[in-house]
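Schema walk-through. Below, the input block comes first and the output block second. Nothing else is stored per chain. Lengths vary across the set, and this one has 104 residues.
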Amino acid sequence: MLFLHNLSGKHIANLDNNQLYSPRGENIGHYESGYEFFIDMNGKYLGEIIEENRLAYNKSNSYKNINFGNHGNYGNVGNYGNPGNIGNIGNISGYEDVVITWIM
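--- output ---
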């Protein structure tokens, strides 16, 4: 299991067994290993891991307008806890924070 954070260091997701989960445990995406990025539950490009543990949106990803289909819902894995803020890494050229709809 890997805690994933945005560029500011806020915990926004968890990666477990190639599935992406919200901090509350809902399945929010899937890892496309052939492309090395995540798709959302509707099959659209969601983002990718940069700097080891940051989930970020690559503005120049050539697959961002492709639909990869519905891979199903893997359910809820529960809450793994909150590791807290790990610090801001600033702006990374070509990347921005993932648009988050799963955190209230």
